[in-house]
Amino acid sequence: MKTTNGRPVRVLLVYPDYTDRDQKYRGTGGNYSEGLASISAVLKRAGHQVKLMHLLYLYSEEEYKRKLRELGEFDIVGFTVRTTAFPDVKEYIRWTREACPDVFIICGGYHCTLVPDEVIAVDGVDCVCVGEGELAQLELCDKMRDGIDYTDTQSLYFKLPDGTIKKNPVRPLLENLDELPIPDFELFDYPNLEHSKVGTAIVVLSRGCFYNCTYCGNGNFRKVYPNKKHYARFRSPENSILYLKTLLEKYPFINTINFRDAIFNMFPDWFDKFIELYKKEIGLPCTGNIRFDILTEDTVRRMKEAGFYTIDMGLESGDQEMRFKLLRRYQTDEMIIRCSEWFHKYGITQLTYNIIGLPHEDIHKALKTIKLNAKIKSDRVIPNIFYPYEGTPLYDISKQAGFIPEGDYTKRRVPLVQPQFPEEQVLFIEAYFMFFVKRYRRAFSLPPAIGKPYERLLDKCVTGKYVPYRFLVKLHDGYAAMRNRAKGFLINRLPKLYVALRNIKNYKRAKTKVES
Amino acid sequence: MKVKRIYSINQKKCISCGTCDVGCPQGAILISGEGKFSINYEKCVSCGICFRDCPIDAIEKREE
Q1: Contact between A432 and A363 (Cβ < 8 Å)
Q2: CA distance B24 to chain A (A)
Q3: Domain span holding position A126
């Protein structure tokens, strides 16, 4: 058993923060992680030392080991594991073990909560954290410092010297988030994070979500806790304002807040109280992820007054039956259209998240998603290709239907192989999603005599027999690569110009809405 | 005298999160075309799991 004999424990948190695995691609500052900042704050409050290895691109063995040496010596190295980064993390763990044979290696993050047995089985891993990590990590560090047996720490799985696994029960989750310190923003090179460069702060005031969408891991994350009823929680409105004030005091260049809570209006009473306080005490332009089925027009009006200039919402599928039966999202088309009208009325732009390539979906159902976006006049859309996360109900459905191919599907652009919705069609819908949303918007706004034939023509362009899907996808890939390079260049080299262009675009959208 | 527990869903509080439906061992939760939830009393065995799990306490209990 490891001990530091009374000395504070030195912890290194390793954060693989990239999605593009091309080694030529170099990240552009990276993203803030609330979980890591919170763990760091809790450990530092107890006197331990924490450093971050922020991996902005796929490191080679030589680069990784050099960076590890440069950062100093550590007692614990902790890895945050995303499902798609897990293959890379296994390599990083191997290299860490080779460079520092005596270090204690712990893994955490959502992938560990979903499949802890798979992670603890990796060579070199000593421990896996299931569920929220702050208090478990704190107890581990305190016991390691004090030379006490830590293998009974709740929420942690340990690989014992004889190779057996000790699985401790998951501790009850912390119901009052105000007990947590304000996150350690300084763990990161905060002014150089990608969003900081454009004056935006990523803020998370809550934990969990009480909805049961079948593609999301939240349903399973909740199950691991003995007090799962309290899985969805917010800091109190007052503590949330303290969080924001602390952040703005440290980084006065922040001029926009991006709330990344799963559902920002999850608790309508909390939300109403918070936006009143936010308006009075902060008042900066902001955005957040909003659920439509718990909204009222009055709340939308007050959101505008408080500073909301844009919102995100998960539309996911335009097929109501799929939303109800497959996704467990009980929002009718009518409800979505009605709420989006309120946002148009008060000049708040809308971004929608959409999923393409769901199990049992076909191009006709995907077209319904495009059309619903056109009907609600989405200003921006994010079409994501469905990824089956292990442990989620949709993974099981995909597996049972035989849509998950043998071998490593994590690196495929379209993970599911479905005869009724081939890969090239999924990629085509993803690539030309906004293109068609704009054209259907036009079709729906025209008088029926012209609009209807135009709609039928568009339908043929999407679902027609002779559409050259593969060629069109290649064409778009080239364009997207160029556009991303230009955006990266602007954010990194000319951030002020990027912000100015973004503001002009947002202003135009909002103005158009109010005028219409 | 035997006391019977009867559970019902308060429609004003319910946010259609589906937690009761996911947890119900009898499949006794009905979902309307408008996304509204109710209890099918022909299937309900008054186990109280929905009452225990509902994150916003929208399930109400009365005893008869």
Answers
A1: no
A2: 13
A3: 10-167
Q: Delineate the domains of chain B, giving CATH numbers in brackets.
A: 5-63 (3.30.70.20)
Per-residue confidence (pLDDT) for residue A487, from 0 to 100 = 81
Q: Terminal CA-to-CA distance of chain A, rounded, Å?
A: 68
Q: Check residue A170 and report its DSSP letter.
A: P
CA-CA distances (angstroms) from residue A345 to A240, A286, A348, A379, A512? 28, 18, 8, 14, 11
Question: What is the number of structural domains in chain A?
Answer: 1
Distances (CA, A) of A302 to A236, A286, A310, A338, A514: 19, 13, 13, 17, 16
CB contact under 8 A, B21 and A331: no
Interface predicted TM-score (ipTM) of this complex, two decimals:
0.88
| Alpha carbons A316 and A293: distance in angstroms, whole number | 14
Q: How long, in residues, is chain B?
A: 64
Angle of CA points B10, B14, B17, to nearest 5°: 145
Q: What is the mean pLDDT of residues B35-53?
A: 93
The pLDDT score that the predictor gives to residue A33 is 97
pLDDT reported for residue A515 = 47
Whole-number pLDDT of residue A21? 67
- Contact call for B56 and A210, based on CB within 8 A: yes
pLDDT at A293: 81
- Where chain A has pLDDT below 50, the residues are 513-516
- Report the CATH number that the domain containing residue A55 is assigned in CATH: 3.40.50.280
B25–A contact, CB cutoff 8 A:
no
The answer for residues whose C-beta is within 8 angstroms of residue A283's C-beta and 6 or more apart is A306, A307
Give pLDDT, residue A514.
45
